[in-house]
Amino acid sequence: FAVGTLEEVLEVGGNNSAAKAQELKIGQVLNGRVEQNNRDYFSVALKAGERVLIECRAGRLDSRLDPSIAVIDAQGTELARGHDAISKD
User: Minimal CA–CA distance to 26: which of 45, 48, 1, 12?
Assistant: First the structure.
């Protein structure tokens, strides 16, 4: 596990499509579980030109998860994708 100072929220489940994305706020830490071969969706309200950093800690916390993160806009266009930047994180 990891200890931090940011607000933590739990994944609510049922967020397996863009239409059912769980809303998050900038500065929150999301804790959750993922099923094998499952996709979870989350939304964050951003302003034009605003920059955010998204990080997944799995391997560094001794998880077997091998995550991939894609960032898509409101129209469904993929803007960025990350996989295995640090170990399996």
Answer: 45
* Helices and strands of the chain, counted as H and E runs: 0, 6
**Residues 10-52: pLDDT tens digits?**
999 899 999 999 999 999 999 988 888 888 999 999 988 899 8
Residue bearing tokens 């998880």: 63
Nearest residue to 19 via CA among 1, 42, 36: 42
- Quote the strand ranges of the chain, DSSP E: 8-10, 22-24, 29-31, 42-44, 68-72, 78-83
Give the whole-angstrom CA distance, residue 32 versus residue 13.
Answer: 9
Angle at 5 between CA 64 and CA 22, to 5 degrees: 60
